[in-house]
Amino acid sequence: MKLIFATHNAGKVKEMRAMLDGLDIEVLSADEAGITEDVVEGGKTFKENAIKKARFVVSKSEWAVADDSGICIDALGGEPGVYSARWAGENVSAETLIARTLERLSNAPEEKRQACFVSTLVLCAPDARGWVFEGEARGLISTEPRGTPRPKLPYDVIFIPDGYNRTFAQMSDEEKNSLSHRGLAFRKLREFLSSL
């Protein structure tokens, strides 16, 4: 089975390949499948955006999966949410995103720095059937960046999952994937694909 991941984000593709390793599935990024266009997301929820991306890619290829993820910070009323990648402006650096987030939280005490990483995956079949898989990881936003950032996953350096004292960026790929929002959603997807 060939599965096109509707993303140009190398970090997400690497995570997906690791989480689906061992299945008889070839995972390709949109770029590797020759799909270079970007989908204008515009949805008000992660699910709306993921559906839009998956439908776009499946119309140009075979099976497709799309992910929309973000971080929702309690003290900021759930922001940045679906705007996580662009709430500091279009095409800004990871450092700028993190600086804006920490600036917005500068007066928030530790007990008000709770956050939730959310991931919604949508799998689309060539015959237009679709399935939704969701994952959440709760934790705290640190007061400063810690760890080595992964490509295009900027919030990893400031998100500390519940029950831990390290950020996602301070964890190995395997440890992060066992706890992360995307890891939880992909385990559900993996279980589903294994049953096909």
Could you describe the 3D structure shown?
The structure is a single chain. The chain is α/β, with parallel strands linked by helices. The protein has one domain (2-194): Maf protein (Alpha-Beta Complex), CATH 3.90.950.10. It is 28% helix and 23% strand. The chain has five helices and six strands; from the N terminus they run E-H-E-H-E-H-E-E-E-H-H. A six-stranded mixed beta sheet has the order 2-1-3-4-5-6. The chain is globular and about 50 Å long.
Distance between the termini: 10 Å
Main sheet summary: 6 strands, mixed
Number of helices: 5
CATH structural architecture: Alpha-Beta Complex
| CATH fold description | Maf protein
- CATH class label: Alpha Beta
The average pLDDT score comes to 92
Helix and strand composition category: alpha/beta
Outline the low-pLDDT stretches.
Answer: none
Order of SSEs, N→C? EHEHEHEEEHH
- The outline comes out as globular
Give the number of DSSP strands. Answer: 6
Q: Approximately what portion of the residues adopt beta-strand conformation?
A: 15-25%
Number of domains: 1
Q: Roughly how much helix do the residues carry, as a percent range? A: 25-40%
List the helices and strands and how they pair.
Elements: E1 2-5, H1 10-19, E2 26-29, H2 46-58, E3 63-73, H3 94-104, E4 114-124, E5 130-141, E6 159-161, H4 173-179, H5 181-194
Parallel strand pairs: 1-2, 1-3
Antiparallel strand pairs: 3-4, 4-5, 5-6
Helix pairs in contact: 4-5
Features:
196 residues, Maf protein, six-stranded mixed beta sheet, 5 helices
What is the structure about, briefly put?
With 196 residues, the protein is of the alpha/beta class.
